[in-house]
Specification:
CATH class: Alpha Beta
CATH architecture: 3-Layer(aba) Sandwich
Order of helices and strands: HHEEHEHEHEEHEEE
Largest sheet: 7 strands, mixed
Bound molecules: S-adenosyl-L-homocysteine
Helix content: 25-40%
Shape: globular
Number of strands: 9
Strand content: 25-35%
Strand order of the largest sheet: 5-4-3-6-7-8-9
C-alpha cells in the first residue's frame, strides 16, 4: 500500500471512530483522493483530520465535517443537490459519487476555476456543474433540490434556500456568528409549510457572504 492509501485508511478509521456510519459516505470518502484538492505544498497533510488553507482566505473543510454534513443530508443516488461554497471542490467530488447531480456555487472566481480544473482532472465533472455567484440566493432555475449543503456559516438559514428545498428534503448549514461559536444545523422540510431543525455539532466555518448572509 502506498503512503497516501495508508493515510487515507487512517482517515477512514478516524471517521468511523467519530461516528460516521453510512457505508456509502465512507466509500465515497475512501474513493476521492483528497491530495488532489489541497495546495501542492500541503499534500503531506491531505489526510490529517483538519481544515487546510486553499487561497483567498478560504479553507478545504475537515474530512470529518464533510462526512458529517454528507451523512446528515441523507442523499440518494438520484438526488439533485445544491452546494454553496465550492472552495477546493473536495466536498463537491464526494457528493458527486453519491448523487444524481451536484450544482455547486462559489463566490470567488479564482476558486471556482481551480475547483473546476481539479474536478475535471479527477473525472468528476460528469454530474457536477460549478457556477460563480451568490449562493445565498440559490439557483432558482434548477430548484427544487433534494438536499442543500452550505459550507460557510451565516447568521440564519437564507429564505431563498429554504424555499428551494423540496418537501422531504434536507438542508445542512452552520449557523452562528461570523467568527465565533457556530452550530451545524440540519433543517428537514417535512411538507410545504413545516420545517424541523436539528442541531448536529459545534463547528467553525468561514463566513457566508452574500445578500442573505453576512454583508462582508
Ligand atoms: N466545501 C469546501 C470548503 C469551502 S470553504 C471544500 O471542501 O473545499 C467555504 C467556501 O464558501 C469558500 O470558498 C467561500 O468563498 C465560499 N462562500 C462564502 N460565501 C459564499 C456565497 N454567498 N456563495 C457562494 N460561495 C460562498
Amino acid at each position: 500500500m502506498d503512503g497516501e492509501a495508508s493515510r487515507r485508511n487512517e482517515m477512514l478509521s478516524t471517521l468511523k471512530r467519530r461516528g460516521i456510519a453510512s457505508a456509502a459516505v465512507l466509500e465515497a470518502m475512501a474513493e476521492v483522493p483528497r491530495e488532489l484538492f489541497v495546495p501542492a505544498h500541503l499534500v503531506e497533510l491531505a489526510y490529517e483530520d483538519g481544515a487546510l488553507p486553499i487561497g483567498d482566505g478560504q479553507t478545504i473543510s475537515q474530512p470529518y465535517i464533510v462526512a458529517l454534513m454528507t451523512e446528515a443530508a441523507d442523499l440518494g443516488h438520484r438526488s439533485r443537490v445544491l452546494e454553496v461554497g465550492t472552495g477546493s471542490g473536495y466536498s463537491t467530488a464526494i457528493l458527486s459519487r453519491l448523487v444524481g447531480h451536484v450544482f455547486s456555487i462559489e463566490r470567488h472566481d479564482a476558486l471556482a476555476i481551480s475547483a473546476r480544473e481539479r474536478l475535471a482532472r479527477g473525472g468528476y465533472l460528469d454530474n457536477v456543474s460549478i457556477s460563480v455567484g451568490d449562493g445565498t440566493l440559490g439557483l432558482p432555475e434548477e430548484a427544487p433540490f433534494d438536499a442543500i449543503i452550505i459550507a460557510a456559516a451565516g447568521p440564519r438559514v437564507p429564505e431563498a434556500l429554504r424555499a428551494q428545498l423540496a418537501p422531504g428534503g434536507r438542508l445542512v448549514m452552520p449557523v452562528g456568528s461570523a467568527s465565533g461559536p457556530q452550530q451545524l444545523n440540519c433543517i428537514v422540510r417535512e411538507d410545504d409549510e413545516t420545517y424541523r431543525t436539528e442541531v448536529l455539532a459545534p463547528v467553525s466555518f468561514v463566513p457566508l457572504i452574500g445578500a442573505q448572509g453576512w454583508r462582508r
